[in-house]
Amino acid sequence: MIDPDFELVRLAQNGSKADFGKLVNQYYEMVYAVAYGILRHSETSRDVTQEVFMKAYRDIGKFAGQSKFKTWLYRITVNAAIDKTRQRRPMESLDATDVSDEEDRPAVIITEKRPGPRDLTAQSELRQILEKAIAQLSPEHRAVIVLREWQDLSYEEIAETLGVQVGTVMSRIFYARKKLAEILGPFGMSNDTMPKEKSKNPKAQKFFGICTLGFFLSLGFGHWLF
Predict the structure, then answer these.
(1) Which residues contact 201 (CB under 8 A, 6 or more apart)?
(2) CA 170, 80, 26: angle at the middle one, nearest 5?
(3) Contact at 8 Å (CB) between 105 and 195?
(4) What DSSP state is assigned to residue 163?
(5) Which fold has domain 1-96?
(6) Where would I find the beta strands (DSSP E) of 9-140?
(7) String of DSSP letters for 108-119
(8) For the domain 107-226, what is the CATH code?
(9) Which of 9, 85, 126, 224 sits CB 3.0–4.6 Å from 207 for a disulfide?
(10) What separation in angstroms does the CA of 31 have from each of 52, 80, 217?
(11) How many CA atoms lie within 13 Å of 219's alpha carbon, on the beta-carbon side?
(12) pTM tops 0.85, yes or no
């Protein structure tokens, strides 16, 4: 196993703050995207991202290279994000969709043509539907969806990251996809078909008639929606 970060990690372990800073710059967006995918809340995700790199800095001397540094960082991020969902106060929900800060979302919308006002409104409504659907998953199921669909990890890489068997990963992904398909079904979406522009549901026609493949890919749903 060749770790492309081996040299930077070695230098950071020897006390080089500058080289650890390079690792931070390289993986900041990845860590934030994973945290946000699990937490669905931009401010809390930024906090968790800082916590992840603080922990990585403190513990980098313990990193023995038995996995890639990136895998180790994934593991810290997932654990920190899931722990954060369990630490919230009873009256505080991090599962509530954070729709106020579009600029902090890790996804970038890609369209084939410049959308008009109606298109933007429909896309915003669709995004809220997808966000609320993801929020209904447990943090553990969100984690596997994020690692598989957003980060494009293999089942084996996810298993190594989470410290579970490949079969467990496959089971969680199957359940998460099934749950999302059940939630999104009324809107003309499923886990094995394209958005149904000819759906009998008027809202589905409104939402999916203007959305491009790039839009769904930007939301991280491309692998299982298409």
Answers:
(1) 186, 187, 188
(2) 90
(3) no
(4) T
(5) Rna Polymerase Sigma Factor; Chain: A (1.10.1740)
(6) none
(7) ----SS---HHH
(8) 1.10.10.10
(9) 126
(10) 8, 11, 19
(11) 22
(12) no
